[in-house]
Amino acid sequence: MEEKIYQASRVSEGNTLFPAEIHILETEIMLKIPGFFSGKSRHIVYQQIEGVNIDTPMIGYSTITFVVGGEEIVGHGFTKSEAQEIKQICSERILATSPGNQTELIANAIAAGANVSKNTGQISVADELKKLKQLVDDGILTQDEFNAQKSKLLSL
Fold this sequence. Notes:
With 156 residues, the protein is an alpha+beta fold. The protein has a domain at 47-123. It has four helices and seven strands. Strands 1-2-3-4 form a four-stranded antiparallel beta sheet, with helices on one face. It has a three-stranded antiparallel beta sheet with strand order 5-6-7. A hairpin with a 3-residue loop joins strand 2 (21-24) and strand 3 (28-33). Helix 3 packs antiparallel against helix 4. The model is unreliable at 117-121 (pLDDT under 50).
């Protein structure tokens, strides 16, 4: 897979001079937060990602949050479609790179907005149904997608 780069808008929070970038690589994501004298880069291996959350306000740019080892790593200033595309790619890469029986469950749960313990692979079905319903209410998931995810959760 070729490297794909998403650059935050310069008119968004904290990105005026040096916008954040998310680099999608074969085995990891690199979040670059440039600075005037120095910047910081964060490499996140797909297998370490426990959750990917998107906050999209009515007006403005989205914030994407990667949950890794209980820590939240945040990037601001991406369009809603970019944030959703990044989240989908993460879900696909997690599925492609994770060994074991829980990989599809974990990838689907992350795609649906869940935070999952990768050690146990356990999720609260009621909590996940609430999150899925919120995604429908926010217009991120269609009713058919909700029903499909609901069926998967209830069959566990």
